[in-house]
Amino acid sequence: MNASDLSRQPYRRPPLNRATDPQRMNWLWRLICETAELDMAELLEALHAAQISIDLSRMRRWSVSDRDDAFFPMSIAEIERNLRMLVALRKAKKDGPTAPNQALAHERKAELGVDPSMASAAEAAVTSNAVLFPAAAGAAAADEPVLAV
Prior knowledge:
By secondary structure, the protein is mostly helical. About 55% of the residues lie in helices and about 0% in strands. It is globular, with a radius of gyration of 20 Å.
């Protein structure tokens, strides 16, 4: 069959060949990492920029076989969060030096279920460099409150 014949036929989904536990999606994570050639250091940077506490050891444990002693189960929610944070970081790096905080804050709000269209002036302040990365701001006074996203 040629490509034009295949384009005319209705699409059929492939069968599910395995039971899927949404709390044990490590196999999907490994496939994503392999096809996208993900750099764990970049992912760690993205998660830390979004104020998510994690270390490289835990991230490596997501990628081992479930028969390995170091295995740590990964949920579909963690996969989605990781990919969203990585996309936000890459977009922010592409857009310029002040954009990372805004992009990551937007993704973090989406992850938490906050409607980004409801942004106010106060929320805009939350996405500034001084708020997301207080140590890097340097100019902020020590007694100023620091808001977290």
